[in-house]
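Tokens for chain A. Residues wanted.
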């Protein structure tokens, strides 16, 4: 149900009976980049206990394996979800089919698992044939402006860029940090070709739907799936474009836009949804059961 005036609901339990599966965002819904939100993972656990399936969908630019470990480190228990689909997963699928084999990696070393087992090799800026951006090397101190000269030179060579995380910024604790999407946006400004993967783009949703349908042992209609997210340009836009009902968690990345983070002003929420051309089935400040 697409509604620019979605109701405020008290918990996931109000919506749960309508849906066979949940497709939940991770960063901003289940954790803040430092610690888990206990009521959120308890809500997903309760939904699973009632018979629903939960697949996490994240713009993390790494394969699902390391993300399982990361979530456990933050305090998200494994019983809160059935599976994970990452932007890294769909990026690997794409890189495996591309003709370019010399890959220029832009991002921190923690993302190098993205390339494990792929047919290509990592190369420097002079020998590379394709750019793969997963983030900034040190997002604690760097900004996209630090990459202007490098990106301009790569774009001038006509190299395509694969962006493994379309997010522009995310919250880490109480501050915002830049993501790969900010570098991809700058690359486009220099005239470079960018292939965007992850939310809000279709490939990650196709992969997530396939995973959900495998868990449910058969096809599902769009209205059988509830998407949960906090990011308007990624979670909400992506799910809305796929025809899924959306639970908008307002207390995440956009919390400051809607008044009291624990009691959002629904008029402000409605105005923002209208201005973005988006809708939602319901609103909740934080994910709870």
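Reply:
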């Amino acid at each position: 149900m697409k509604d620019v005036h979605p109701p405020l609901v008290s918990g996931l339990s109000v919506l749960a009976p309508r849906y066979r599966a949940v497709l939940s965002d991770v960063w901003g819904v289940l954790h803040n980049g430092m610690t888990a939100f206990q009521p959120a993972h308890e809500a997903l656990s309760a939904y699973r206990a009632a018979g629903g399936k939960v697949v996490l969908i994240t713009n993390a630019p790494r394969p699902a394996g390391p993300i399982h470990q990361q979530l456990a480190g933050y305090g998200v228990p494994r019983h809160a979800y059935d599976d994970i689909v990452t932007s890294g997963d769909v990026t690997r699928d794409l890189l495996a089919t591309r003709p370019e084999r010399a890959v220029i990696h832009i991002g921190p070393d923690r993302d190098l698992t993205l390339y494990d087992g792929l047919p290509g090799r990592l190369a420097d800026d002079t020998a590379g044939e394709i750019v793969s951006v997963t983030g900034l090397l040190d997002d604690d101190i760097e900004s996209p402006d630090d990459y202007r000269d490098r990106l301009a030179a790569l774009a001038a060579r006509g190299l395509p860029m694969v962006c493994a995380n379309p997010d522009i910024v995310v919250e880490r604790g109480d501050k915002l940090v830049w993501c790969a999407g900010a570098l991809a946006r700058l690359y486009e400004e220099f005239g470079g070709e960018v292939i965007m993967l992850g939310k809000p783009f279709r490939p990650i949703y196709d992969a997530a739907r396939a995973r959900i349908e495998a868990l449910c042992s058969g096809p599902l209609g769009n209205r059988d799936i509830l998407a949960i997210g906090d990011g308007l340009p990624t979670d909400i836009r992506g799910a809305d474009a796929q025809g899924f009902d959306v639970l908008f968690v307002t207390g995440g990345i956009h919390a400051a836009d809607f008044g009291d983070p624990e009691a959002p002003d629904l008029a402000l929420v409605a105005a923002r949804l209208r201005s973005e051309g988006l809708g939602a089935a319901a609103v909740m400040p934080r994910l709870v059961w």
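The chain has two domains: 12-88+200-284, 94-196. The chain has a mean pLDDT of 95.
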